[in-house]
Amino acid sequence: MYSFQNPSQDVIFSYIKGAKTIAVVGLSNREETAAYRVSKLMQEAGYTIIPVNPKLAGSEVLGEKVYACLQDIPIHVDIVDVFRRSEFLPDVAKDFIQTDADVFWAQLGLENEEAEQILRTAGCQKIVMNRCLKIEYLEMLDGGN
């Protein structure tokens, strides 16, 4: 059974503290989804949210232009937050390594060994899986307790 080893809590907090821009893969305009709720909270906290969803490319979610894929985003991305099922993580990892994004983050319940191998082979060391960005952000605000 594959089990991903996340970086330490301090390292995870450093990723969040150092970030300004978060691309959210799988973000749609459906307000009931976890992706929407997490993105809205992070946007309200001052982060720039960039929606990535090929079905909605060119439209807007949370007032931001939606891109079809990570490679289409014209600015630097600090964290790529992935809300796609685990079996799609290798595809997102392949897109990720074609960008200059810093942190690959797979949401709570998501991890994939092949995706990790793709990222590590390409030299990406900043990988977080099976963690919720919103929960980690709120814990960081709470002093990491």
Give a brief rundown of this model:
It contains five helices and seven strands.
Task: Describe the 3D structure.
The chain is an alpha/beta fold and 145 residues long. It has a single domain (9-141), classed as Rossmann fold. Helices cover 32% and strands 17% of the residues. It contains 5 helices and 7 strands; from the N terminus they run H-E-H-E-E-E-E-H-E-H-E-H. The protein has helices spanning 9-18, 34-44, 89-96, 113-121, 133-141, and strands spanning 21-25, 48-52, 60-61, 64-65, 79-82, 103-106, 127-128. The strands form 2 sheets. A 5-stranded parallel beta sheet has the order 2-1-5-6-7, with helices on both faces. Strand 5 (79-82), helix 3 (89-96) and strand 6 form a beta-alpha-beta unit. Helix 3 runs parallel beside helix 4 (113-121).
CATH superfamily: NAD(P)-binding Rossmann-like Domain
CATH domain class name: Alpha Beta
The H-and-E topology, N to C, reads as HEHEEEEHEHEH
Give the amount of beta strand, in percent: 15-25%
| Biggest sheet, spatial arrangement of strands | 2-1-5-6-7
Tell me the overall shape. globular
Cα distance, first to last residue? Answer: 30 Å
